[in-house]
Specification:
Elements (H helix, E strand, L loop, with lengths): L2 H8 L2 E2 L5 E2 L3 H17 L7 H8 L3 H13 L3 E4 L8 E4 L1 H6 L15 H17 L4 E5 H9 L7 E4 L5 E4 L3 E5 L2 E8 L5 H12 L5 E6 L2 H20 L7 E6 L5 H11 L4
Parallel strand pairs: 9-10, 10-11
Antiparallel strand pairs: 1-2, 3-4, 5-8, 6-7, 8-9
Helix pairs in contact: 3-4, 8-9, 9-10
Length: about 270
């Protein structure tokens, strides 16, 4: 195929709806890849080029080129507050409609809990790449969608700092058959009452297990103490607590901090 023929094949042709259609066999493959990328991006508040490269097994340069094209077609938005930070990438309303998702009412605030959100996305990518057949990794947005569709309970009821009841979705849920394991990445310090409510709700849930990944030995120790207290309180109220709860270091914690977290978490159980 000559270069001018390839260019003609790759040129997007927009038909009815929001999806750019590419003609030719290569165009069909590229359209399918674009759809997979958009579907994955849409499962999170935002992602980055590096994380897309990780998830789809391509170079950062290849990921950047695809994102640039998707942005040019109006399917994604890529923004950053500072030149030094990677762009936050999320679906535009057009991109959401193109894959059958309801567009967001507001654009995500990429500066809010940025470190936490990207940690969740990185962990999800790693879990999906390592998953055996039959294992499914659900993001918070996946859980919200399934619960809204009546496919089961994917959240817990907790009390906020003002004593108001609200619903909380885990950062991730790993499913294999009927077994569900919730994963919470905890970087920020929470009020003791808030943390106790979260732990107690998880212990009384129908989940098989909940795993807390933390970046601080102090938080690991707090979680260990609170878990022991809340499990005792639930037992006194004759509420079954068959949920396994584990506390582990976040994978990128420095070696010395990692070891300290393991020691602190070891105080539990």
């Amino acid at each position: 195929m000559h270069d001018n023929e390839r260019a003609a094949t790759d040129r997007p042709v927009v038909t009815a709806g929001d999806w750019p259609v590419r003609r030719g066999r290569r165009g069909v493959h590229e359209e399918a890849r674009d759809r997979r990328w958009l579907q994955w991006i849409g499962r999170f508040r935002f992602v980055t080029v590096d994380l897309l490269a990780l998830r789809f097994g391509v170079s950062v340069q290849q990921a950047r080129a695809r994102v640039r094209r998707l942005e040019g077609e109006g399917l994604v938005v890529a923004v950053r507050a500072h030149v030094s930070e990677p762009k936050a990438i999320y679906l535009s309303p057009k991109g959401a409609r193109a894959i059958g998702r309801r567009p967001r009412r507001k654009a995500p605030r990429a500066a809010v809990q940025r470190e936490h959100e990207l940690a969740v996305v990185e962990l999800a990518a790693g879990l999906e790449l390592a998953a055996h057949p039959g294992v499914e990794v659900l993001s918070e947005r996946d859980c919200q969608g399934r619960e809204a569709d009546g496919l089961g309970r994917f959240s817990i009821d907790v009390l906020d700092d003002r004593g108001q009841s609200g619903r909380r979705w885990p950062d991730l849920i790993v499913c294999q058959g009927d077994r569900r394991v919730a994963i919470e990445i905890e970087f920020a310090t929470k009020a003791a009452s808030r943390l106790a409510s979260i732990v107690a709700s998880y212990l009384a849930s129908e989940l098989a297990e909940v795993r807390f990944l933390v970046a601080s030995p102090a938080l690991a120790a707090r979680l260990a103490r609170i878990t022991t207290i809340e499990r005792g309180r639930l037992a006194n109220r004759r509420i079954s607590t068959n949920v396994a709860l584990s506390i582990a270091p976040w994978q990128h914690a420095p070696e010395s901090v990692y070891a300290a977290i393991v020691r602190s978490a070891g105080a539990y159980g």
